[in-house]
Amino acid sequence: MLGGILAFLALASFFGLVLGFAAVVFKVESNPVVNQIDALLPQTQCGQCSFAGCRPYAEAIAAGDAQINLCPPGGANLIQSLADLLDLEVLPVGEEEIFQGPIVAIIIEEICIGCTLCIQACPVDAILGAAKQMHTVIESECTGCELCVAPCPVDCIEMLPVKQTLKNWRWPEPQYNVNNKEADTIFTTLDQVLTENVRP
Question: Which CATH architecture does the domain made up of 101-164 adopt?
């Protein structure tokens, strides 16, 4: 009995060392640009960009295989951030695609028939329920991707704005109307004024 346990521990230690060594020797360095792009993306994993998730979309952008304006949840702010990061031209986004704020799926429980189609469509497993039983959405897990709405045969899913509380409220992002050249001119002038006033 003791011999078997020792043999098992020895084998586990050996394979652990082999895997650890292989992880160090065969480590594949990821592209830092892909990491930067992925950090800017909203991480909803909704697939609205036609990619399986945010990471594959980031890889496609870095490789030049995808445009920077394919992410509806990110909206115009994301396009601007990606354009600044990659030194690309800001591409237009349609009014209907601009992300107005966080939304969450709500299931009207009286109408739900428990078909589980919305559960299968949810990429983040935010819907709880069983076959022929009423479903509900775990609001804290829902990313607002809207992929559960279309499969529902009884139209019992609504997308509503997330209720603002002290836990999720954030300052609105500042809106700048000054373009980069004008901003550079302003800062250069300000720098000159400060330099002249600091001189003894």
Answer: 2-Layer Sandwich (3.30)
